[in-house]
Design a protein that fits this description.
- The structure is a homodimer of 437-residue chains.
- The first copy, chain A, has 15 helices and 17 strands.
- By secondary structure, chain A is an alpha/beta fold.
- Chain A folds into two domains: 3-229 and 416-430, Aldehyde Dehydrogenase, Chain A, domain 1 (3-Layer(aba) Sandwich), CATH 3.40.605.10; 235-392, Aldehyde Dehydrogenase, Chain A, domain 2 (3-Layer(aba) Sandwich).
- In chain A, strands 10-11-9-12-8-7-13-14 form an eight-stranded parallel sheet, sandwiched between helices. A four-stranded parallel sheet of chain A has the order 5-4-3-6, sandwiched between helices. A three-stranded antiparallel sheet of chain A has the order 1-2-17, with no helix packed on it.
- The termini of chain A are far apart.
- Strand 17 (423-434) of chain A pairs parallel with strand 14 (383-388) of chain B.
Chain lengths: 437, 437
């Protein structure tokens, strides 16, 4: 191990020790005190607006000079309006119920032991995310409200923005008489530091990566700390033979085009053969008119060609489509691209989804009770929809009030993660001298 | 990557594919059908008793020839009585309620979407364990009852025993019209195969190691599949100044000596200074008479010496003790050894426990309401006891009816894991054409 690796580990251990120490106070802090910190942070974000925007400007200028794409620059940029949004987000988290201390279950055992299963914070959360400075405030707020200390590692392009936002948040904690170290930012943005951070066992209880597939994969292969995997969504909509086709049209358009870049957007459309000749040309027109590129199976290609659509090798212009290959069924485009396949039976649809699902969100459109039930019970995913858009998989839409991500692993939790999902359990056991026989 | 690694990966992928396929049927199997498989397996274990004992004899003889310790040989050995216990265990799991399909939460959103949060199997579980053939039947039963397919990798010394037990279990599945591949045993017992097994992402949903600290550490560092960490228990009992000392004596003796080899046994005793002069000599006599070796702090040493006990460098004979060093506070002996420390305050006790806890089971003995509350709320562990022995942390004692292990990580679950803890959630969402605005 090189000297620099040891230095990095020592740096991270120091952060970790501070967070663990702060967590012992935060875990028992009252809801009122945590809310005071959040509301103070909201006020101070606005008070420090010009400084935050100035620091952010340094990041944006440096990123632009390095050739960052305009859309990425946009995600990095903070404005007065966006700082309003950050402050409003903090106030919303303050308004949510505090899950810590909830009693989940309990009872008295035959020997008189009284067991109460309660909700407690997870402890110290590690959050790794990309160059989106609003996540710094957002993640810190969700952690603090749920009684968790956090160590944040944001994208290096946002370092100046993150530093000032974390500073303001830590000042707000201090004003509410909570330890500043409830929120720690890793200011050494090297890749090696990120890798060592994923191995901070004994200090970090859970690691949550928020970002694209590359980040998530890196965390999964390198982390020794337990991870909650979020965000990969190769979502399907299956239009059954018994679908209300008008409803199917609405749902397909919404699931694909309302916000194509997100994980709950549809990536593959499956159509039952019995309705394909009617439905496919119609929906193709709707999708193409919205700029969606179609990558279709052979049967689809025949129907589309018979309806006057033109097969090309790139399929990107209006009135055109291209043939899908095997990789298309497995791809999360996060873009205005849709794979389309005709299936002969419900079973074939279930088989296809089962093979390619990332266990996120899957939907069937049907008026057939048995088809709805079969699909919903057979498909192994966090959220299985009947007659609704996959786009609803979201903490706000589910009524959780906030969201730190959408888990598509099966351990711990699945689907949208709100405050409750940032807790674990603790058994409180009270006796009067019981011993085991 | 070597040819042999690729061969191992292909072998494991085939097992994984078979398990995933079998799981699709098992996840939707009725409780009655799963129970039929378990009861059939119970009957068949007894029918095949002589064959199982013969296969086990091959394992025991080979292990003895290789110099396996007598106590390890005892864990490996099967007898008619132990096969009765295996069969009885299968019947007990059949009698437990099936958690699959439980409705956990739900409601109707303002837009009319009806959301139901249900319990579903985790999927395919990987279980890695040591040379204890009864675990093969036990783990398979818990997995099948909770709707999970499993891939089992037992200690290589038990391979013949495991093969025949898995064979009988698979025959029972077939007789109940369930896929045999719901239970797969890895018959290649090489270390490299175990390592590759920990990386079987996409096939194995969750890995549960059952065994000692070495096995758990190996899994934590090598696995890319999500892991539930079980079993490390550096448990403390703190005897407060306001303790009923008669009760404290009973609890301390029970927590240390009733079964010292298990994870919920006490490893360190903390005593408040105000009661140490009275309590320590008494409890020392009780523990020493039961063969417990004492490793004590300097203050304890003075009190013990004043009471006529003799300090030695090994402290193993009656009437003797030795000085503890720093490593003793962190050691899980799993043996008749106890570290003992005097603390001046409740806060010092909480600090000591917080520093050395493995977050498993911790206890306070006190009649002081505030001390009890403070200890219970401050200590970060799965189970925090007031006036009871730590030995109760157990699936059966908690009324779960069975146990696959005790989680001492915070993700997913904490404490004893029964059937419910082998499930995850699935949201069933029903609409009538809702799209997101």
């Amino acid at each position: 191990m090189s000297n620099s690796t040891i230095e990095i580990q020592n740096y991270l251990k120091k952060l970790g020790e501070a967070a663990v120490r702060a967590e012992r106070t935060l875990a028992r802090a009252s809801t009122a005190q945590k809310n005071r910190a959040l509301l103070t942070a909201a006020r101070m974000m606005k008070e420090k607006e010009s400084e935050i925007i100035a620091a952010n400007g340094v990041d944006v200028d440096a990123a632009a000079a390095k050739g960052m794409s305009v859309s990425m620059q946009d995600r990095l940029r903070l404005t007065g309006k966006r700082i309003d949004d950050i402050a409003e987000g903090l106030r919303q988290v303050a308004a949510l119920p505090d899950p810590v201390g909830d009693v989940l279950d309990g009872g008295t055992r035959p020997n008189g032991l009284r067991i109460v299963k309660t909700r407690v914070p997870l402890g110290v959360l590690g959050i790794i995310y990309e160059a989106r400075p609003n996540v710094t405030a957002d993640a810190a707020a969700l952690c603090v409200k749920s009684g968790n200390a956090c160590i944040l590692r944001g994208g290096k392009e946002a370092i100046n923005s993150n530093e000032i936002i974390a500073r303001v948040f830590r000042d707000a904690l201090a004003e509410a008489d909570l330890p500043e170290d409830c929120v720690r930012l890793i200011t050494d943005t090297s890749r090696e530091t990120a890798t060592e951070f994923m191995k901070l066992d004994g200090y970090v209880d859970v690691l949550i990566p928020r970002g694209g597939a590359g980040l998530i994969q890196a965390v999964l292969t390198q982390a020794t700390v337990p991870v909650i995997q979020t965000g990969t969504g190769n979502c399907h909509v299956y239009v059954d033979r018994a679908a209300d086709l008008q409803m199917a049209t609405k749902i397909v358009i919404n699931a694909k085009t309302q916000r194509p870049s997100v994980c709950n957007a549809m990536e593959t459309l499956l159509i039952h053969a019995a309705v394909a000749e009617r439905f496919l040309p119609e929906i193709a027109a709707e999708l193409l008119s919205r700029g969606v590129e179609l990558r279709v199976c052979g049967k689809c290609a025949s129907i589309l060609a018979a309806s006057g659509y033109v097969q090309t090798s790139d399929g990107s212009a209006a009135g055109q489509f291209k043939l899908a290959d095997e990789s298309d069924w497995a791809t999360e485009y996060d873009d205005l691209i849709l794979a389309v396949k005709i299936v002969d039976t419900l079973e074939e649809a279930i088989d296809h989804v089962s093979r390619y699902t990332t266990h996120h969100s899957e939907a069937i459109v049907t008026s057939d009770y048995n088809a709805a039930t079969d699909f919903q019970l057979s498909i192994d995913a966090a959220c299985v929809y009947v007659n609704a858009s996959t786009r609803f998989t979201d903490g706000f839409e589910f009524g959780l009030g906030a969201e730190i991500g959408i888990s598509n692993q099966k351990l711990h939790t699945r689907g949208p993660m709100g405050l409750k999902e940032l807790t674990t359990i603790k058994y409180l056991i009270n006796g009067n001298g019981q011993v085991r026989g």
